[in-house]
Amino acid sequence: MYTFKNYNEINKQLAMLRADSTTKFVDAIDILASKISSYMDQLSILQTNHTIVFFTDGQDSDKTPAHKLITRFKNFVQTTNYIQVHTIGLGSHDAKFLNELTATGGISG
Question: Where are the domains positioned within the chain?
Answer without folding.
Answer: 23-102
